[in-house]
Specification:
The protein is built from eight helices and seven strands. By secondary structure, the chain is α/β, with parallel strands linked by helices. The protein has one domain: Alpha-Beta Complex (Spore Coat Polysaccharide Biosynthesis Protein SpsA, Chain A). It has a seven-stranded mixed sheet, with helices on both faces. Helix 2 links the parallel strand 2 and strand 3. Helix 7 packs parallel to helix 8.
Length: 232
């Protein structure tokens, strides 16, 4: 199957990303059929900027990456493939077709864009992010016998496969929950290298000590929780 024969929906969680969103939306490839920007309680013009650029906007006042993603899923409808992409311009939206292609070709259900395998702009990922990702992936390999290199936000998944995962996490555990459940569900998983650059503005997670500690704790808690629970 060609990528052009699939419908592709994009979900972009966004919190105060009015400066970055115009570039993110402008760089999406023509294969995208629908874009939902989830305004996660922004205090700037994120929603207005997204609408002006042609995206649909869903409002999720409960702060949290997982909350925003779940709200986006409720709004996106029924595309064949769903792509998650950050709104801070750190990812390269034009690479979306490379993530979707293995799904279109029938060789994967879930494709993760790995920043650790790709080229990173100096300063794009601080050391705590690099080593935190590596440690989390090591633990998942140990507990779930699945080999990941990253917990990157840029990812594509077949919608029907995602529905089977019954995602629940409402904050920092969302990405790792998806990766653990994908392995447990027997999805065909593939990683591809993606480039990564310095984001526009300050990171809500790695940009502060509090954000780093909260995210790190939740990721480790999620891995431990599913590591000792047989069902999800």
């Amino acid at each position: 199957m060609s990528i052009h024969e699939l419908t592709v929906g994009v979900i972009i969680p966004a919190l105060n990303e009015e400066r970055a969103l115009p570039a993110v939306l402008a760089e999406l490839p023509p294969e995208v059929d629908d874009v939902v920007v989830v305004d996660n309680g922004s205090t700037d013009a994120t929603a207005e900027v997204a609408r002006t650029a042609g995206a649909r906007v869903a409002l999720e006042p409960e702060r949290g990456y997982g909350s925003a993603c779940l709200r986006g899923l409720a709004a996106i409808g029924t595309p064949d493939v769903i792509v998650f992409l950050d709104g801070d311009h750190s990812d390269y939206p034009e690479k979306l077709s490379e993530l979707v292609r293995p799904i279109a070709e029938g060789s994967a259900d879930f494709v993760l864009g790995s920043r650790l395998l790709g080229q990173r702009e100096p300063g794009a990922m601080p050391p705590q992010s690099v080593w935190g990702n590596r440690f989390a992936c090591f633990l998942m390999r140990l507990l779930f016998r699945v080999h990941y290199t990253d917990l990157g936000p840029f990812r594509a998944i077949r919608r029907e496969a995602l529905e089977r995962l019954r995602m629940r996490d409402r904050n920092f555990g969302w990405t790792v929950e998806m990766q653990i459940k994908a392995a447990r569900a027997g999805l065909r998983i593939r990683e591809i290298p993606v480039p990564y650059r310095r984001r526009v503005g300050q990171s809500k997670i790695s940009g502060t000590l509090k954000g780093t500690l909260r995210a790190g704790y939740k990721i480790l808690y999620t891995i431990a929780k599913y590591g000792f629970v047989k069902r999800f």
